[in-house]
Design brief:
Blueprint (H helix, E strand, L loop, with lengths): L1 E5 L6 H12 L3 E3 H11 L2 H11 L6 H12 L8 E4 L5 H13 L6 E6 L2 H15 L6 H15 L1 H8 L3 E5 L4 H15 L1
Parallel strand pairs: 1-3, 1-4, 2-3, 4-5
Helix pairs in contact: 1-9, 2-3, 4-5, 6-7
Length: about 190
């Protein structure tokens, strides 16, 4: 299965993606994790990505698309994957469509986690404290949510028009959210 997990920063995408990938035996492809690994390693990409991440901006499409293309070409993605944090723009959707078309494949489903914004801010502030993440200062969190609303949220209408979008409440216990995702995917199968 080829899935996309969407939702604002702090919606629980990473947590749910990890669970879903384990359940389905597919790789979890998180652009955030890829960016942070490059920052930690001090690669040229990491240095460039850090500048954008620290400002709460998205890493430019050209850099992101190249990383995703390389990752999707790896053998463990041949039977499926879950994308977390990509695509984030209409242009990235087009790139992803092209990447998958070249492989004779397409996206099977898009899961959007719906959460309360106040809850998201609380989650991200807690995560910043717990993990010492400089990219989760409150000012940056609020900016990231604004950027999400402006650039990423329009993707939901595009995927809905393709019949691929499933909206699931991301509120509550992790296990309850997972059960709702499984139920939604199974009802669309």
């Amino acid at each position: 299965m080829r899935l996309i997990m969407m939702g604002p920063p702090g919606a629980g995408k990473g947590t749910q993606a990890d669970i879903m990938c384990e359940d389905m035996s597919i790789p979890h492809i998180s652009t955030g994790d890829i960016f942070r690994a490059n920052v930690t390693q001090g690669t040229a990409l990491g240095i460039e990505a850090k500048r954008y991440m620290d400002a709460g901006e998205y890493v430019p499409d050209g850099v992101t698309n190249a990383m995703v293309r390389d990752r999707l070409a790896q053998p463990d993605c041949s039977t499926g994957f879950l994308l977390d944090g990509y695509p984030r723009t209409i242009e990235q959707v087009g790139e992803l469509d092209s990447m998958l078309a070249a492989q004779g494949a397409g996206i099977d489903a898009v899961v959007e986690l719906i959460v309360d914004i106040d809850e998201v801010v609380q989650r991200l502030v807690k995560r910043a404290v717990d993990q010492g993440r400089a990219d989760d200062a409150e000012k940056v969190i609020r900016h990231r949510l604004e950027v999400f609303a402006e650039q990423t949220a329009p993707l939901t209408s595009l995927y809905a028009s393709r019949g691929l979008l499933t909206q699931v409440s991301g509120m509550g216990d992790v296990d309850d959210v997972t059960a709702r995702i499984h139920a939604a995917l199974n009802s669309n199968a």
